[in-house]
Amino acid sequence: MPAVDFDYYAPATLPEALTLLADLGEDVKVLAGGQSLVPMLTMRLARPRAVVDIHGLDELRGVHRRDGGLEIGALVRHRSIERGDGPLAACPLLPEAASLIGNVRVRAMGTIGGSLAHADPAAEWPAVVRALDGVLVVRGRDGERTIPAADFFTGILSTALRPEELLVAVRLSLPAGRAGYAIEEFSRRAGDFAIIAAVAAVELDAAGRVARARVAIAGGGPGPVRLAAAEQALAGAPPSEETFREALARAPLEIEPDGDVHASAEYRRHLTRVLARRALVRAASRAGGAAGTPR
Questions:
Q1: In DSSP terms, which residues pair with 84 in a beta bridge?
Q2: 178-287: CATH, from 3.50.50.60, 3.40.50.300, 3.90.1150.10, 3.30.390.50
């Protein structure tokens, strides 16, 4: 089925793109890698009056170390992150997460900014950005603002982006001490969206106990969710598999899963505890803790 007719624009610079978005109004879609938008256009799930193709904005392809963290341009492709070149080597979680996205074609074309702006609740990048206390950098014709990841994702395929704004980068905080990261997910087939994915970051103190744990879940509701109660329960605890199991069993889960043809809500809750524990075990082990082998 062909897409409905739309006007096509391919700005050569970021200011030109921002001017177009401001002038065209609300009925506009931004095309980055196209791995989400093009299928929606061809299935007529999206019927925009205009499409603004930002593929040519090379200024959005950079990766930089800034203030102890990383700043990743919105047009950096999944495949580039999967390779982990240059500054990306500072956070091994990023290549690991990128390797789970779709297939080689999707990773070669899709962009981190496109995935974050699309805000699919089962996608990996929104959960990764939540786990790493990410900040989304957005820009409009009138200036720039930053949005914490906790406030950026507002619902299914919905974000805090205004119609005239463009996501230009994501900033991720990276701890300087003993820290480890891991992602675990379950899907029906390799390359499918995860039924549940769990992203964990564990920081250890000088005594080898958990100084801070962060766990974010994809697929557990309309957007990525942090397991705040479990995180709080783990502060100061020894990084053992049993510790993680008990904390996840006792703490309430902040997720709001729905049941569908792939999994019931209760099964998603079960998967959340299992995958979060496995991710925590691997993250703690990578941080230098004796967490054991996840089961």
A1: none
A2: 3.30.390.50
Residue closest to 125 by CA, chosen among 138, 136, 110, 112: 112
What is the spatial distance between Cα 21 and Cα 163, in angstroms, rounded to a whole number? 7
Report pTM: 0.93
d(CA 155, CA 158): 5
State whether residue 42 is helix, strand or coil: helix
List 159's β-bridge partners, or say none: 153
Q: For residues 131 and 226, is the Cβ–Cβ distance under 8 A?
A: yes
Q: What is the pLDDT of residues 232-260, one digit of tens each?
A: 999 999 999 999 999 999 999 999 888 88
**3-class DSSP state for residue 108?**
helix
For 58-173, CATH gives: 3.30.465.10
E-strand stretches of the chain = 7-9, 28-31, 50-53, 63-66, 69-73, 135-140, 143-148, 153-155, 158-159, 166-173, 178-186, 196-204, 210-218, 225-226
Half-sphere exposure of 141 (CA within 13 A, CB side): 12
Beta bridge partners of 215: 200
Position 4 scores a pLDDT of: 84
Of the candidates 218, 223, 188, 220, the residue with the CA atom closest to the CA atom of residue 200: 218
Structure tokens at 82: 């999967």
SS3 of residue 192 by DSSP:
coil
Domain limits of the chain? 7-53, 58-173, 178-287
Residues of the chain whose pLDDT is less than 70?
1, 289-295
